[in-house]
Design brief:
single chain; 7-stranded mixed sheet; alpha+beta; BirA Bifunctional Protein, domain 2; 227 residues; 27% strand; 3-stranded mixed sheet
Length: 227
């Protein structure tokens, strides 16, 4: 599976190109991974609630057909768009999401950071008190499973995931925060969770360039999404 670095590209033409690629592909079309960086933009998922967009200010809000709620894309973030034929790959959507998350976890591990999953909340999180710790934080004492924002106590979100499947083929993807201005995340309820803290590699003490992070993420996604 080829990972192509597209670099800084506008969001809307990239979204339209993913749709066109998916509509035109057939059973023989090779899978691809597009690695991008976008100018500042908020993107809203199909079921996205307008009230989760608090104060967008001068940043545009674009409605999309992916799953999930509102998120932010901007400079210093690696956005990976895997374009995968799931029927040919031989696995279903739940495993596809797991494989993407695993690729992000392995990417973080490459840089010495431990990524964590949160049940029912796609994406990858890190411990705010110790991003290099393998130990999971205990759930809130009054909520053994963790509910709503309580499930994220002590965690910061470092990678967001939102996908679309059309005719068994995927587009949209995952965004890994590398070295960003994180302020725009305060203008929304990230992924629909009020107060969810967002972090990047830079704020937890890892210095890495966009190109380095994109290369590693591309390699890990290629390996983990292969049949």
């Amino acid at each position: 599976m080829h990972a192509a670095v597209r670099g800084r590209v506008a969001y809307l033409p990239t979204y339209e190109a993913m749709q066109a690629f998916t509509a035109a592909r057939d059973a023989t079309t090779p899978d691809e991974i597009w690695l991008c960086e976008h100018p500042p933009v908020f993107t809203q998922g199909l079921a996205g609630r307008p009230d989760h967009v608090l104060e967008p200010g001068d940043i545009p809000v674009i409605a999309t057909n992916r799953g999930g709620q509102v998120t932010y894309h901007g400079p210093g973030q690696v956005v990976a768009y895997p374009l995968v034929d799931l029927r040919r790959a031989g696995y279903f959507i739940k495993e596809y999401v797991y494989r993407i998350e695993e690729a992000v976890i392995r990417t973080l591990a490459h840089f010495g950071v431990t990524g964590h999953r949160v049940a029912g909340a796609p994406g990858i999180y890190v411990r705010l008190d110790d991003p290099f710790s393998h130990d999971r934080l205990p759930p809130p004492p009054h909520s053994p499973e963790g509910e709503g924002s309580e499930a994220f106590t002590g965690l910061g979100k470092i990678a967001a995931l939102g996908i679309k499947v059309s005719r068994h083929c995927t587009y949209h993807g995952v965004a890994l925060n590398v070295d960003m201005d994180l302020e725009p995340f305060l203008r929304i309820n990230p992924c629909g969770y009020a107060g969810l803290k967002t972090v990047d590699l830079s704020t937890i003490g890892v210095s890495v360039t966009w190109n380095e992070a994109a290369e590693v993420l591309g390699q890990k996604l290629s390996a983990h999404l292969s049949p």
